[in-house]
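pls read this protein:
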Amino acid sequence: MSSKSTKKVISNSKVLLMLTCWSFLVLLFLSPDSPLFNTCHHIDSAWFFMEGKALMNGLRPYVDFSDCKGPLLWLVYGIGYLISPRNFFGMYVVGSLFYAATLFFNYKTAKIFLKNDWTAVAASLPMIFVYFFPWFHYEVRSEDIMLLFISISIYILFKRLYSQKECINDASDFFILGTCFMALTLIKYNISAVQGVIVLIAFWDQYRRRASVAKAFFWAAMAAVIVAVPFLAYLWYTNTLGAFINDYFVVAFQVVAEENSDSPTYANDLTDVINDNRKITFIMAILVGGILLGSKLKRYRIVPVIIGLLFVAVSTRHNVWNYYYGVCYVFIIYLFIYALMITKPKLRNVVYVLLTGYVTLTCLYGNLIMGELRQITIFTQNPDKQAFQEIADVMKGTHHARLLNYECNEFGFGIPHEALPAGNQYACQNGATPEMMKDHKQILLDKKADFVITYCREDQPEKKMVLKEIEDAGYQLRKQCMYMDMPFYIYEKKK
């Protein structure tokens, strides 16, 4: 790599500013958290927002509320809540910043291979449409937040493997890898496990360089400890450390197993992939992209494809919900990098334009024309928007109303008036264990909730008993509305 080829055209600060503006612009139209869209039609993000809000209002995680997720995720959503307590605008800001940083490290990764700032920018800009590709993405979830730490890890590893020696700094590189490992552990530990493979490859390369592996391990471990200590100290101070270990590492595993009881083996998961053309296409794109990029490398040619497929393997296991593949979106950048490495200018331009055009147009069409986003714009007259507001307004006037979603998920009805969880299992998780359901039902029997929300479809006659349970516990029906094609009921505790 000559000094001429590495001469900077634009500074990192200017690239970051450009990508930040790009991120805010694109998310304005593609993220349901955007101010252009209504608060309704949030599911997973409604859970996380409720939990972030609970955290910021002094409720104890894993005791006063829980969702089998890591505390860092709730902190991120808590920051979004502090920015804008009664809608998702704060999460639009937080999400845009996370994606800007993710794109920046996509740019840094691309530049390792492309050697030119503007060409690397060209590789990173269309990645935002990959991240919001409608096949496996609708709302911003934990996978979107984790993409940043995965992108950073990939950049650090590839910099060490494929850049010149002067670009390598053992202390900072392994410190950053350790930071990303612990950050992922504090969101979803199964993803940190596969990110750990990136760290191991970096250790192996350190060994092959005959550099100090002990020194590398020290910096990685120190970073992990520095990130973990504030969270552990908080959990210890609030007397929730034991509950955290049990809920996050034991109960979460049981919930996943129960939720996916119809897919007990990897053979079942693979069968599910084989029967889904979109999954096959997505996985093949990562496989082919990794192979093509590897063909341009002088050493460690198999590393890009191996890393991509390992993330795919982890995301495929128990994949009932396709958005689990969200952490794998980053590996599509292999295709953009390879397209821009083609030596023939005409062929390079044609391949890049076709790839970018397909990803961009499919993303915009699938989200804004065919997807749910078109139904919840602030300009759209939609029965769901009205129903959502009517249910939410029942809680108007009750400061921090305690809410129980009885035998149903969290749908965000408490957001407009800042309702808080009524107890640990304030909503019914998919795959909930008998112990979790016992706690869930006890919240109702103890009348800890000011309001109780549930739904009962016509094809669910067994849930008629749920309505009776709520009434027998001392609650009266305040409102019934059709929302997302389901009849929802909100009850208020009798005075």
Summary: The radius of gyration is 24 Å. Confidence is low (pLDDT under 50) at residues 1-6. The longest strand covers residues 475-483. The chain has 19 helices and five strands.
